[in-house]
Give the backbone structure.
Amino acid sequence: MPSSLLWAVDVYGRVYSLSTAGQQWEHCRDAHLEFKRVTAVQQCCWSIACDHNIYLYVHASEVPIRYQEETYENQRWNPVDGFSDRLLPSDRWQWSDITGLKHQPLGDFQLPSENWEWEADWYIDENFGGEPTEKGGWTYAIDFPATYTKDKKWNSCVRRRRWIRYRRYKAQDTWVKIPSEQTESLPDPFNDITCGGWEITEEPRGCLALWAVSLQGKVWFRCDINHHNPEGSVWEEVPVPGEVVQISCGPGDLVWAVLWEGHLLVREGVGRDCLKGSSWVTVESPSPGVGVVHVAVGVNVVWAVTKDHKVWFRRGVNSHNPCGSGWIGMVGEMVMINVGLSDQVWAIGFEDRAVYFRQGVTASELSGKAWKVVSVPRDSERSHSSASASSLQSAGCFFGGEVRLQSQASMLSDADAETERAGGEVVPTPEIGDAPKPRIPKVTSDSFISELVSDREGQISRCDVPPAGPSIPEEDHPEKELEDRASPAQVLSPSQSGGVDPQWSNVDLEEAQTHLTSGPGGDAAETSSLSSVATYNLALEEPYGLDEPPKWAWVSGGGCLVECHTQLNWFNSSTSTALNSSMQAMSLSITPAQTAAWRKQIFEQLSERSKREMENFMHYEQAIEQSVWVKKGTMQWWRDWKPHKWVDVQFALEQFSGVEGNKDGILFIYYTFNDEKKYLHMFINEVTILVPVLNDSKHTFAIYTAERTKQRWPMRLAAATELEMHDWLALLSVSCCDSRGIQGPPSKQAIWSVTCKGDIFVSEPTKELEASPYPTPCAQISLGVVWGIGYDHTAWVHTGGYGGGFFQGLASSTDNIYTQTDVKSVYIYENQRWNPVTGYTNRGLPTDRYMWSNASGLKECTKNNTKPPSPNWTWVSDWTIDYAVPGGTDREGWQYAADFPASYHGNKTLKDFVRRRRWARKCKLTTTGPWQEVPPIPLSDITILPCGPKSTVEQVSLWAISNKGDILCRLGVTSLTPGSSSNYGSSWLHVGTDQPFKSISIGAVHQVWAIAKDGSAFYRGSVSAQNPAGDCWYHIPSPTGQKLKQVSVGRTSVYTVDENGNLWYRHGVTPSYPQGSSWEHISNNVRKVSVGPLDQVWVIADKVQGSHSLSCGTVCRRLGVLPMEPKGHSWDYGIGGGWDHITVRGNAMEAPRIVMPSLTDNQTATRPLQTSNQPEMNGNPVGC
C-alpha cells in the first residue's frame, strides 16, 4: 500500500505532515506564513493562513496536470476565393468552439492564474476519428453543422480544423495563494474550510467539493474543482438558516455544519448533478444545554465534540439517511476531531493537545475501540517563531502567560516586553492568582471552535488537569446512547479545583474588564461577540523545549489511508525509539549478502559431511525401497457419461517416493455404478492444470490431463467446504510439482496467463510447470522482471517468491510474501419497458429479460441475491448507480434503446421503448502473495522489453499507460536480481501525447507502438537505451473502417486486435522503416494477442469449437511461424474457456513439439480469486 500523509497544524501555526511509512513529523518548510486550518485529500491540501487567504498545496506527480485548450477554425467555399474566412452572416464564428456558438479566437485564451504555464504554441490536430487527415488538418462537410469527413468531395462547401494548445499546472509541492481577484468579492475572511466529495462523481476527473465558513457565519462553496482545474473557479454563497462556525464534508454526499447556538445542520440533496445540495435540516445537540462546537463526517459516520469536550458518535448515518438516528457518548475529551479515509478518526486531546488515533475502526465497527496517542517526534528543525504580534492576532493566535484585553495586548510597549524577558516569567492577572507553572501551554485559540463558541455566559472555570497518559482507555461500563427524542440526560461538568493555574481559559473580550474588577466569583453577562478568544502573551523563547511534545491545534486525515491491517510505526514511545536506535548502533552490521553467503557455506559443509558419513554404508541393501502415504476424503464427482449429475465418491491421493528421492502419485476416485464398485485413476505426472470453480452451491475444481484437454472434458470434483477445496488444491499442486522436480519461483522463460476471474497460471516452456496463485489480472515479463496490474489499476511487481494465499508451509516461500489488496466493482442491470398507461415500469413482456439481470439479461441478478465474486471478497460499499457506462446516460443513469438487446444511448427518443441502468457495488480482497505494490500512479496497461535468453541489458525498458490514458516510461528498472528492488525502478517519466491511450507494447529492438482511445495507432520514434522516452509520435493509419484496441510487438512482428475481434499483421516492418507499410488480416474472434521475443504469436480466441459447443476465451498458438514466414499458417488450440490474458514476452526458448500446445503441459493450482458465481459453461471450468 502506498504511503499517505496526515496533516496537522501546531499552536504556532506551523504545518507538519506525517507519512504512514514514516516515524516523524515533517515540517512543511515551504509554508512561510502561519496557518489556522488545513483540510487534506489524497492529491492536495487546502488551508487558511493568518492573512485570511486561501492557500493550496498540490502534491507533485510524475504525471503532470495538463489541460487541453481547443478551438476550431471555420471556412466557407466561394467561387471567387475558394475556401476563405469570409463566412455568411448566418454562419458560425470564424474561430469558435465545437458547437460554433461561442467565439474563441486564439488570442482570447488566457491562463487561469500565474500557477499555470503554456507548454507550447498552438498547433493543428491532424488526427480525425483515429485516422490521419490531409496536411492542414481540414475536415469537410456540406454545411454548418453537419457530419464532417477527412476527404474533400465535390459538394463540400464548408470546412474546419481543430487547433490545440496545452497548459500545464506548475505550482506543485508548494503552497500557492488562490488568486485574490477570485475572492475579492467576499465580504469577510474565512474562518473554516473543509474538502471532500471525491466519491460523488467520477466526471469530471478528480472532482472535489470545497466548503468554507466566513467570520460572519456564512457558508461558501468553491465551484469547478477537478483534476484539470485544481484551484477551482469562483466562490458561491450557500444560504444557511443561521450563523455557522464550522463545517465538515465527507468523501461522499455527507455535509454537516455547526451553528453558533450549538445545533447542527445537515445538507440534503447533494449529488453528482448538484454538489452543493438543495436544503438544510437541523439536528439537535447530543447533550441538552451543551452545544456542539465541532463536527466531522466520513462516508457513513459522524463524530461531534460538545462544549464540555465530550466526544459523540452518530449512529445510523448513510447516504439514504444523512441525519442518522441517535447519538452515542464516547470516552475521551477532545477539542477537535477529524474523519479520514476508510472512516478512520483522528482527534486532538483536550488536556495535552496531542494527536490521537481511533483504533479498531472497521466497516463492521465504525465507532472503534480506543484512543491511542500518536507519539512520534518532529524533524530536526526547532526554529524560533517568526510571527509578530500583529500577524498572530490576524491569524487568531494569541500566546502568553496571562489573560489580557485585546486593547491591552495591542498597547504593550517595548519596555513591557523587556521587563517580561528580564523577569523570566509572566506576572499572572488577579483572576489567576497563583504562581505560574514553569511552562504554560501555548494555544492557538482561534484554531479551536470550542474557544469561539463556548462559555457564552463568560464564566471562567478552573480545572485540575491530570498528567496525560499515552492512551485513553475505554470505560468498563457500556456506552451510553441518546435518541433524538429521548429525555434530557444529565451532563457532568468538569471537576473544579481551586488554587490551580488553569491550562485553558475562555474570556469574552467585551466583558473582560468586568471580570478583572469583579474577581473570580463575579457573574458574567451574556454577549454575542464574534471574538470570544483566550489571549496569551507570547514570550520570546523556544517554541518547544527539547523534550516537550508539540501542542497541536488542528489535524486533517482526509488524505491519510490507514487500513485495518496496516502496521503503523506511530505509537512507539520516544524511550523505546531511543533504545532501539542505541541497540542498532551497538549491533554488528550484517548485510543480506553476507547472510546468504553464510547460509550457502553452512549448507555445503553439511552436504559434504552427510556424503562422507554415508560412503561406508553404500553397499548395504535398502531396508525400505519406497515410502507411501495416502490422503483420503469424501467428495462429489461430475459423472462423465449421461445423464450427467453429481455423484458421491471417495477421493484418494496416493503418493510414493523412490530410492533416489523422486516422488510420484496416483489419484483414485471410487464410485458405485449399478450396485457395482468401480474406480477411476489418474497419474499425477499426467496432470496439466488444476482450476478452481465456484458456483452458488458447490466448491468445485477441475483437473485436466492432455487427453482430457483434447476432449474438452476435465475431471470435475466438488468439496464440502471452501477450506477443504483449498487444502486439496494446495496438496495436489505440491504433489504435481514434486513429481516433476519443480521447486521455487517461475523461471525467466515462463509463460504467464490470466483467467477472466483473475487467477494467474504459469507455464514453463518445457514439460515442467510451476504453481503460481498470484492475484493480478495482467502480467508482463522479461528477463525475470514481472509486473502486473490489479482490478483497481494498482501496479504490482513480482518479488521472486512463490506461494502465499492458501499455499502455506513448504508450498510457500518464507520471504518476499506481502499483503495484497484489490478492489473491483460488481455490476447488475435494472431493466424497464415502456407502456402507454404507466410509462416505464419493471413489468416487461413475457419474452423480455429479467427486470434485474446481468449484462446479457440471461441471468437474474438482484441486489439481494448478488454475491461477491468469491467468499474471499467482501463488500465495501452499497449499491450505487453507475454513470460511467459506454454510450452515456441521462441524469438518472438510464440508457435507452428500441428493444432488448440493442444499441443503447443516453438520450431518450420517440422510438425508445426499453431502458436500463447499471448499478455498481465495490468489493475488496485482502490476501498475501509474492507481489509488492508500486505506488502511486494507477495503470491500465504495461509492457516490458522482450529479450532473448542470452541477452544482457543494463536497463530494462518498461512503458505503461495510466488509468487516465497518460503514457509513462519507467526509469531505473534492471534485471540484475529477479525480485529485488532493482525490478521496481526509480521513477516515472511522462511522455507527452495529444490524446489518451489504452494499449502499448515495446518490441525487442525498442520499437514502441501504442493505441489511442479513439482506435488510432502510433509509433514512437528514436527510442533507444540512451534515449528511453524517444522523440516524437508517428500516426499509423488503422485498417480501413476498424478501430484498434490492443497491440503487441515482438522482434520483427507487429500484431494488433481491433474492437471487432479481428487480428491484423503489419507488413513491411524493417529496421530502416519500423512503421511498416500495410495491414493484413490474419484471423477473427480474437480477444488478446501476445508476441514473444522470437515472434511467437499466442492469442486468446473466442468461438473456438469445444466438445459440445463453442467456447469463449481459448488459448491458441500460431503454428508455422518462421523468420521467412512470420505470419505462420494455422492455429493450435489449448485449454479452452475462460482465459482473458496471456503473455509470452519472456519466453525466448522454443517449446518442444508436442501434440497439445504449451498450456496442456501446465499444472497449476490457483486460489479462486475472482471466480464467478455461475455454473460451468460448455464443460469449461472457468467459463466467462
